[in-house]
Amino acid sequence: MLTASYAKINLFLELIGKLPNNYHQVNTILCSIDLFDLLNYELLESPEIILTCNIPSLVSTSNLVYKVASCLKEQFNIPAGIKIHLEKHIPVSAGLGGGSSNAANCILALNEIWQLNLSRTKMHKIASQFGSDINFFLEGGTAKGENRGEIIIKLPPILLNNILLVNPGLELSSAEAYKLAALPKKQEQLKFDPSNLIGSCFNRLESGIRSAYPVIDNIINTISNFGAKIAMMSGSGSTCFGIFDSKDDLIACQQYFDQKGFWTYATKTINISPR
Fold first, then answer.
1. pTM
2. Has residue 129 got a pLDDT over 70?
């Protein structure tokens, strides 16, 4: 079974407070984009789980794909094994949800391959054990994430073209991004208004990262200078994105960053349901 595992961008991310488990409580708007990894699943008669990847450093028992497969195999006493090949195209630790998307893809695929007959509710419960973004990728499209991000509310699709992703090759952990963020007072908290998209796009994590990493600040300023109507960081970074009215402006901006040696990708939001 060959499957696509789509990335996301956050159009909005606000911090509401701290939860008892010390996670941040968030209000975020996520959109699937047409950048994706590929995962190929091959059923094995022998009981082992084999993970391969075009990036050798990701072949590890700590990879979320391996963790999810191991959990499902053990929890449901599956005698058969599985070989999973992960072909990465989404940058790693980059605010695009690549690892979380891969984990959700694994839940959906193994539910089918191993005939687990899991309900949507059960899949969401399993997903929430492994991370905050995985639940979104079980649904895809456009959604609001609440609590620590694992409570997903589907929204009408926000379809945007001419989006440029720019990544400087800097891997940032979510833990560091949240540590650098200042928690706003209740009266300072912002809300997302889909009728005022340009005015609503915001990322509370961005300010701390821009201060700590001048390269991120420079990328966002440069994207704006090339004419983007929105220029911001996605999730916990380090990928930044610009949304352009003009395809020519996007191409000019992309060529500039390509010449600098940065990773870039021209994309759009998509309305999908993984399965």
1. 0.94
2. yes
